[in-house]
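re: ur question from earlier - yeah i can do the single chain one, its not a big deal. heres the input i used so u can compare w yours
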Amino acid sequence: MSEPDVVIEASAPDTPDRPTVQPGVTLRNNPVLRRELIERVRGVKVVLFVTAWLGLLTAILWLAYQGSVSVNQGFGLGVNQIGRLGRQIFEWVLFGMLMLVLFLVPGLTAGAITGERERQTLIPLQMTMMRPRDIIVGKLSAALAFLVLLVVSAMPLLGVSFLIGGFTLFDIARGLAMLIFTGLVLGSLCVAISSRLRRTMASTVLCYGLAFVFAVGSFFSMAAWAIAASVDGGSDDPPAELLMFNPFAAVGDALPRGEAALFFDETISPFGGMRTLIDELGGAREFDENGRDIGDRGPRIWIYYVVIGTLLMVGSVKVASAAVSTPADSER
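and the output i got, formated as tokens:
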């Protein structure tokens, strides 16, 4: 009786040419982003939230219009005054949006990772095919998407001031771009803080403290500079570069300035005041005999702001990703 033939199947050797499956997901298919977006827009709370947002901005628009008209009536509402009126209303509404963004972003992002820890859902996220960076980017993108929703919902209010005139669509785009960039930088810093803490309450307190320093820290540094200069017997003004990471100074510097050396040529708004402060500290405004501005406007605060903010945003994402990549055993 003959022996049965034994067939040995050789397995394909592992060669470096064979493609390997890399973990991770694209932003479009990010399940964290999808879940966060569904949670944020589900229910009646988002309707009440957007209504309150638009109600506050409408109140700011009405107050800015009434105040600007009463101030400019004494000088006559000519073509230049009407254009200045439109710019002032636009800048006041944009200022209100920036104030609300500084208040809302910490609340949207402070519990991004600490909430997962408290719900004990961070470990399942770590065990998926998503990279730590995908988790952080998904959380941050959800907050950014909600912020963009708020900005888009406020566009009709900006359209009211645009109908009055005094600025262009490009000016609106610059102002809103700086506004969204500010929210993105602050949100990334808050997500990094949330990734390092275990309780949402502690993260929220630190994030709001960071937003406060973000908004007024430059003014405290300028005051400290002035006090130190007076103690030393000097009279030097603080450098304008101390404002290079102040969101109000950056947004105001990115918006157009007045061209003539007239008292009412610059807008009467917080952003107009910031532009005047930057130009005074820079000491670079020069005018010809007709009152036209011919000088260099000093340091471009908004450029410094964008560069520093981009570096902080990238560093915050890396720090948060490193914290989320911690082995699951340490999260128990």
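Residues 4-22, 260-264 have pLDDT under 50 and may be disordered. not sure if urs matches, ping me
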